[in-house]
Known about the structure:
The chain is an alpha+beta fold and 203 residues long.
Amino acid sequence: MTERWRYLDLDRQGPYENGATMPVLVRSVAEHGEPIAQTSVWGQTHLNVGWFDDVDATLDLDRCADLGVEVIRRQVYGGGTAFYGAECAAMWGFMLPKTDERYADLDALVARFQPILLDALAAIGLGEVTFEGSSDLRWHGRKLGALTAQDIVVCNSVGGFLNLAKPDIDLYLQVVRIPDDKFKDKAVKDMREYVCTAEEVAG
């Protein structure tokens, strides 16, 4: 049986480009029943606010504007707030039609895609990376990226990211609100030690 896929390299994308592009691709999958694979890199430093978080309680919007950090509220995926530096993360996504029973079970999709991703990482010198928990890509306990499967209403999605560079923690601390200063030092220490990059893994 012949299967037709579309592949799109979206290159460097800012948060607004990404927010405008994804609904178009998702609708195409739903209308035509053909899966789409896409890759991209975050091209602009921004904060991506999930639906769980109160924007004003989480961020200093005036400071974000002063420092050139864009802010966007995402409509799907996880509910927390994420900070992305320009060119700090490579992303990929597979948008899959719900009409195809092969793509209906999200847990089965993750199980199918995990070994494929690990083989691809091994081919580029990242063979020590393993999955921990349900979605994290880790290297000796440090987070390199993730792979998740989600129902995004009109289609199913398997997607993830890989850290290419460490985020600018000092910039992040200037725009995010941390309730108690005693937690700030711990948060910074944890973030610096927890996150790793592809370059670190490859040596």
